[in-house]
Every structure is written in structure tokens, then in C-alpha cells.
Amino acid sequence: MRDISFGQYYPVKSFIHSLDARIKILVTFLFMISVFFIVSYTMFVFMYIALTIVIAVSHVPFKIVLKSIKGILFLLIFTAIINIFFTSTGNVLVPIHIGRVDMSITDQGINFAIKMAMRFTLLVLGSSILTFTTTPTELTDALEFLLKPLTYIKIPVHDLAIIMSIALRFIPGLVEETDKIMMAQKARGADIDSTNIFKKIKAMLPVLIPLFVSAFRRADELADALDARCYNASSKRTKMKVFKLRASDVIAFIAVVLFIVVIFLDKYLVTNLLVAPDLGGFEVQGLDICIYNLFRLVG
């Protein structure tokens, strides 16, 4: 449970921490969209290098950021298996016959699996940096500001922001509560660490039930506390910290936009201008074509 990064803030002073939360949310949103437009392995490498630089500048330990990937390992493995065994296009590398079922491992399937895994990893790392460098209060206030135009169509943006703020503040407490319950169940002989997936699911039931009870109890106590203090979630409430754009925020936003423009140029310009080599089902696109031609000239 400690591998959950969403809602976890790492308190340290850095350039990334000092950026405007609104800019960080916009940048993360654009980053997550652009990840799905990357077509070349060269651009993937550039993206990982840029992300590594951002993590280094944020002063958040790499070990803590990389832990967030553990939470999606099952999803990565599952999507890789789906792409490898159920992609029929490309050159067949390993034919598989199981009874009446015919499957095959193709070079195109391996290509899809690798790129999908790299995309998922970038998405998790990018969102982790946002939560590690932005407090839950800043996140909700920034989201409320960015979604403010929705109030003109009668959407209660302020109420949604309050709900999100409370939910984010509950995450660290629920993680700690889950760890305590799991340790208590282990002390009673529960086989939570079993490698058998069915035994592990069965052992998790005694953990989930008290966790839900604890969550509802905390929510009830919070509601009573808000009611006792006559809290009114009015949209006219003032903020303790007022957002102010600085030159560093604008420069950071422009730098990210330029990087995203390069990604789109790689997909729609470089791929169309250069003639891709014929490697069977293994598709070569974007800057990978330049790298391939360069190796051919050197060789």
C-alpha cells in the first residue's frame, strides 16, 4: 500500500514545487495526451530523459518515484500478454497451437507490447511527479480555478473541489489504516503474502471489511465536525493562498508545449517525409527512421 503515490506529497523545496499548481496540472494533462502520440523509440528515450531531469530538479528521490510503478505491474504484464499473443499482424516469430486454438507471437505484437508498457510507465511517472510536488489543497484549488467556466452551465465546481480535497486528505490515512489492519491479520495467521492469487484474494477479505468500516466511520466523524463548526461550502469563500503567475511558470509551460510540438512533428511530419525501411511487420516511424539510416551509413 505504500506504493500508492496518488495523494502523497513529498515536502521539500525545489523549482518544481514552487511552480504554480495550475500550470503543473495543465502541463501534466498535455503530457498525458502527448504520450499517446509518440510513435518512435527515439522520442520515447527523449521523453524518459526529460522526465528524469524533472525528477532530479524536483529533489524527490528516484526510489520513491519509481515505487509508484509497482502499483501497475499487473496491468503492464496483462496488457503486454494481450498485445503479444493476440496481435495477428506482422511476421510470425513463434506459432502457438493449443488444441483448436491457434495463436502466434509476431514482431508487430512485441512492438505494440513494448510501446504500450512504455506509455503506461510514462503516465504513472508523470502523474506521480504532480502529486509529489503539489499539496492536496493546491491541487483542489487549482482544479477549481481551471474548471470555473463550468459554473456557467450550472455545474457545482466548488462542491466538487471540496469533495476532491477531502478525498485526497483521506488517502494517506487509509493507507496507514490498511497497513495496520494487514499487520493485525498477519499476526492472526492470515496468509496475505501467499503467491497463490486465489488464496491472496481470500485473505484480503478480512482486510477490506474493517477498512470500509473505518472509512465510513471517518467520513461520519468528519461530517459531524463540519456541521458542528457551521461549515458552509460557499463558492464565495476566500483562499489562504492566492495563485499568481510568475515568469518561471510561463517559461516552464512554453518549454513543455515546445516539447509536445516536437512529438507531433515526429509523428506527422518526419514519418511522412522519410521513407520507412521495409522490416516486415516491425513498423519503423519518426526519428527511428533517421537512426536506422544512420546505422546503415556507419555500417
Structure overview:
- With 299 residues, this protein is mostly helical.
- The protein folds into two domains: 1-134 and 245-299, no CATH class; 136-243, no CATH class.
- Helices cover 66% and strands 4% of the residues.
- It has eleven helices and two strands; from the N terminus they run αααααββαααααα.
- The protein has helices at 15-18, 21-35, 41-58, 62-67, 73-85, 107-133, 136-146, 157-187, 197-228, 247-273, 287-298; strands at residues 92-98, 101-106.
- It has a two-stranded antiparallel ribbon.
- Helix 2 (21-35) packs antiparallel against helix 6 (107-133).
- It starts with 14 loop residues before the first helix and ends with a helix.
- The mean pLDDT is 81.
The strands making up the biggest β-sheet line up spatially as 1-2
- What portion of residues belong to β-strands? under 5%
Rg, nearest Å = 24 Å
Summed over residues and divided by their number, the pLDDT gives a mean of 81
Distance between the termini: 50 Å
General shape: globular
Number of domains: 2
Q: Give the helix proportion (percent range).
A: 55-70%
For this entry, what is the oligomeric state of its chains?
single chain
